[in-house]
Amino acid sequence: MGYIFDAEDAKQYEKWMADEKNRAVLDLETRLMASMLRPVCGESLLDVGCGTGESISPYLGKGINLTGIDASPAMLEIARENLGHRVDFHLGFAEDLPFSDNAFNHVSLFLTLEFARNPEEAVAEACRVAKDSVFIGILNKHSAYVTQLRVKRFLVPSMYRKARFFSIGQVRQMVFNRLGRVPFSWKTVLQFPGTSRGPCFHIEAGGYLWKSPFGAFAGIKAMPVPRFQAMPLTLKTRIEQKGVAGRRVASCHEYNRETEKDENGNYR
Fold first, then answer.
1. Which of 14, 66, 205, 227 keeps 20 to 30 A from 82, CA to CA?
2. Is residue 201 scored above 80 in pLDDT?
3. Does 242 reside within a domain?
4. In this predicted model, what pLDDT tens digit does every residue of 53-82 receive, in sequence order?
């Protein structure tokens, strides 16, 4: 990870989450994620950059094997306090996941790329350990909210001072660089940041504007597709018969049958 949250960051995040408006924002974001990433009972889900566990909490109690990994000991300590043993937590980096290939059915990176040391390598690692789907949640670089945030972070102390922001197109390219042109989809929410109730919020919650490219939070889903490389095989039977115009050439099968006759004209 490029920026690792310390104890003070963890406290500030918990304070931020205590605000009702911010909880409503997170609810919209996780609702979008749930609409795209649909693990079923018995499957496994890895949350990369799990933080305090807020992004994996919606899947608790649904029979899904949950694993979280984060580079911040402070954030993991809060996650363990909040979620206990219902999630298997690990300390580690998004760019070097300590799991085998295809170890999980689904992998999510929820607001993780912004703080990764090497975002494309983090995406590559997520694709490596995922078998069925990868979900990537980002703060949309092309939204008005993120534009304001990018300016504000230089005026007011914020953890986002260390963040990098991406567009849907940039994430698509990262995925395609790793997997080729696999099935890829996206949706956005928070077209009206700062609203936690009223008509605008209900429009957001209803999903009517999820296909707008300008929402502050973009949810992206990629589905790894197994690819096989065909290798040419050498034809071991040598055919000396030459083709003549107007004359039928014996097939390899017929030629092999002819060469299998013994001296009495019988097939071996």
1. 205
2. no
3. no
4. 999 999 999 999 999 999 999 999 999 999
Cα–Cα distance measured from residue 77 to residue 51, given in angstroms and rounded to the nearest whole number: 9
CA 27 to chain centre: 20
Dump pLDDT digits (tens) for 203-245: 777 777 888 899 999 999 999 876 555 566 676 666 555 555 5
Could you tell me the CATH number of the domain that includes residue 74? 3.40.50.150
Which structural domain range is residue 161 located in?
Answer: 7-222
Q: Is the pTM of this model over 0.90?
A: no
DSSP conformation class of 107: E
Q: Look at residue 227 and tell me if it is in a domain.
A: no
238 lies in some domain: no
CA distance 94 to 107: 11
Determine, yes or no, domain membership for 191: yes
- Return the number of other C-beta atoms located less than 10 Å from residue 147's C-beta: 14
Residue 184, H or E segment: strand 184-189
CA dist., res. 96 & res. 75, Å (int): 19
